[in-house]
Amino acid sequence: MSTLAPEAVAPHVRGRFGKPYAWEPECESTQLLLLGSGLPEGAVAATDHQTAGRGRLGRVWEAPPGSSVLLSVMLHPPAGRHWPELSLLGGIAAAEAVEGMTGLSAQVKWPNDVMVDRRKVAGVIAEARDATAVLGIGINVTQAREELPVGTSTEVASMRTITGRAYDVATLAGSLLYRLERLYDTWRHGGLRDVYAELGSRNFLFGRRVAVDGRPGTAAAIGHDGRLEVHLDGGGTLHVESGEVAVVR
Ligand code: BTN
Known about the structure:
The chain is α+β, with helices and mostly antiparallel strands and about 250 residues long. The chain contains six helices and 14 strands.
């Protein structure tokens, strides 16, 4: 088991993100430690085990103790920025961090999943309260196959099940925070347009057959406004703003 305890992570924190750093060996959800906390931007809450980890769309996020990166970052986005775009930034940062450690290419499955080898290795959730946003990121690192959730709509993997190697969660967390800070600062000044090169090239859904609310089509680009373009069979284009896009196999 590896840990996100402060003494393990501190040597890997290179910027503002991760200061201050709150850690609990176990908690309900790192999101709850930050939401409404009034902490400054870049504050991080991390844990080695969540008893009620929050996923998007009311789902749960489950992982055995010490197997994952489980952290939330406090952000104070400027007024006028569309804060749901933060999920995409979190996805790019997690994809870069996973790629940096495994050497395998990672994509972002709009709006919030990180995919390696067509399987989900990380998820991102953005929740807002009182003009602050809390960005939660979970990365599956050392789970064995039998420790991963089953029956999910997207096949799930860990970095270990994909490469057969073990990774240190603290090193990965430091890399994730550093990459997220760089992307966030760019987005803060210029919006999604300024991080678009990193996003467009990682669009997992591009060209794939999908269904949106049961309507079949083909996914295309993610727009500069963060919406996913889907060309419907039989004509018409949707610009999907939120929710779920199912991949049709
Ligand atoms: C998803 O894929 O639905 C999003 C999952 C987000 C999970 C992370 S783990 C750390 C943070 N705390 C939570 O309760 N959820 C996020």
